[in-house]
User: What shape does this take?
Amino acid sequence: MSEQAIAPVDAQEPPYYAVVFTSVRTEGDNGYGETAERMEERVKEIPGFLGIDSARTPGGLGITVGYFRDAEAIEEWRSDMEHRAAQKRGRESWYESYTLHIAKVERSHGFRRGQG
Assistant: This one.
């Protein structure tokens, strides 16, 4: 994922969707970093994409949460041909395991120090 200031995606007006991708990677990069950056660029082009949060533990567990306005935006991302090719490569070489959860967000709020 791209280097940027550390801050979560802002709270959005519900309802919207959270797509939670939790993974354990294989050893080595094997082109993963470049593809992850490209996928982040691509998903930002999807109408209804709201943002992405991502983190990886030192032990290798990764969690990426993509936020989407509606199910149609998720489907557009799911069916994107470059994304589908990256998914295939992920199953072939980048992931030991992963899970995907899609949830409808019904409540959302946030906090930032220094803001009333």
Summary: Strands lie at 16-25, 49-56, 61-68, 95-105. The first helix runs from residue 32 to 43.
